[in-house]
Write a structure and sequence with these properties.
about 270 residues, alpha/beta, Rossmann fold, seven-stranded mixed β-sheet, 10 helices, 12 strands, globular
Amino acid sequence: MASLFEEIGYWSEIKLDIVREYASAYSSILTKKFYHVYIDAFSGSGKHISKTTGDFVLGSPANALKVKPPFKEYYFIDIDKDKTDELQKLRAYRNDIHIYEGDCNTILLDKIFPNIKYDDYQRGLCLLDPYGLDLNWEVTATAGNMRCMDIFLNFPIQDMNRNVLWNNAQKVNPAQADRLTKFWGNETWKTASYKNMPNLFGYDWPIKVSGQEIAKAFQERLRKVAGFKYVPNPIPMRNSKGSVVYYLFFASQKPVAGNIVNDIFDKYRNWGEQ
C-alpha cells in the first residue's frame, strides 16, 4: 500500500486544491463551445495518504472526475502498472476515460496530443507533475505549439539541486546533467543556473544562482520558446521544513486563464506550514 498510495505533505494537498479549482473554472467556461479534455501525465493510483491526517486524499484523476460540468474525455497515464490497474477502478463502465501504462513522454506525443486540434474547437488541460526530472522538453514545447493546451507543470528544483546543480559543476554525473538537458530542452540551463564571479585570486568562477532565478529563466522559456502567451509567476511548493521542493507553473494562451490562476496562486502563495 505504501507504494501504491503515496504519502503526500501539506503543500501537495494544496497543489491538488489549486488544480481542482482551476479545472472547475476551466470546464465551466469551455463546456458550451469547446470539446475539452483533461490529461494527467503522471496520474499515480488516483488517491494518496495525507501525512498530516493519515487519511486517504483524492488524487488529481479522481478530483477531475468530480468537476461539474464534466470534461468530455479524460486521459490518465502512469508508468507503474500497479497504479494504472488501480486507476481502472475509476473507469467502471464509462467510455470517456482512457488509461495508459507507460512513459508519458511517448504516449502524449504519439497517442493523445495528435487527437486534440485547435481548428476543431478542441481544448485540453494537462497536468505535468513528474516525480523529478522525468519530463522531456519536447512534450512541453508541443503543448505550447498546439495553441489549445493549458498546462500545470512541476519544476523540480530539489531534484535539480540534489543531482545536477552542484557548486562544483565539474563533479556532476554526466547522466544526471543529461536528465536536466532533456527537461530544459538544451544546455542553456547552465548559463541560467550559474554566474561567473571573480574569486579571491581575480579569476572568474561559476557561482550557482538562487532557485527562484532558475525558475524565472524557465518561465521565459515557456513564453519565448514553447510559445505560451501567459505564464504567471510560479508558486513554490515546500516540504515540512519550509524548503522549496518544486515550483508549480501554469501556462496558457488566454489572458483570462492567466488571471484566474493568478487569483488562485495568490490565495495560497503565502500559506505557511499548518
